[in-house]
Design a protein that fits this description.
This protein has one domain: Arp2/3 complex 21 kDa subunit ARPC3. Helices cover about 70% and strands about 0% of the residues. The two termini are about 20 Å apart. Keywords: Membrane, Transmembrane, Transmembrane helix. This is Energy-coupling factor transport system substrate-specific component.
């Protein structure tokens, strides 16, 4: 019988939830310095903001890669957004964006793993494609939900194409950094949380 990590089923034990909360808090620490200039950057240069916004996804992706448990990216995104909302005038939007990022990442990996005989391994270099595809799916979703807030000036094909490219660069960069973080944690002896049914 496969373990919960290998089967992709979510076992949200206390250690798993605490791990998600820790990554969420780290994500908020990285987000807060960018929250003030973020609005101005988004208004003036959406493609640049799309790249910079990838910082918000690093810990969301890291949680899923570190635990290997479906749903941890979503939980981490939700917890992080609820905390970050305190420091941001666009709190409800953050809840939508961060939770959506985690949900799409989780869902894409789950669908991939159901079609593959072996689940994604957080440190497997040959499995990196799975995480890149999941990050690209998250980028596409984030781009789609951001369209309603674009100014008419930024709805031209050129601006839209550049912004989509920026989203892809930001999210793909985030998932690569997440992999580096996971490797660093494992290297220093940080153990993954126990995921058993309560």
């Amino acid at each position: 019988m496969m373990s919960s990590a290998r089967s992709g089923r979510p076992w949200f034990s206390t250690p798993v939830l605490m791990t998600c909360a820790a990554f969420a808090a780290a994500g908020v620490v990285a987000y807060v310095p960018l929250s003030a200039p973020g609005g101005a950057i988004a208004a003036l240069a959406p493609p640049l903001y799309a790249i910079v916004a990838g910082v918000q996804s690093v810990m969301v992706f890291t949680a899923r890669r570190f635990t290997g448990i479906t749903g941890t990216a979503t939980i981490t995104g939700l917890i992080g957004a609820l905390i970050a909302a305190v420091f941001s005038p666009v709190g409800p939007i953050l809840v939508l964006l961060w939770t959506l990022t985690g949900a799409i990442f989780d869902l894409t990996l789950l669908l991939w793993e159901r079609r593959s005989p072996e689940p994604a391994r957080p440190l497997g270099l040959h499995d990196e494609a799975r995480f890149l595809v999941a990050a690209a799916a998250a980028a596409a979703a984030l781009f789609a939900v951001s369209l309603p807030v674009f100014s008419p000036h930024h709805l031209s094909p050129a601006w839209l194409g550049l912004t989509l490219a920026g989203r892809l660069i930001g999210e793909l960069g985030a998932v690569v950094v997440a992999g580096l973080v996971v490797r660093a944690l494992v290297r220093v002896g940080i153990r993954r949380p126990v995921h058993t049914r309560r």
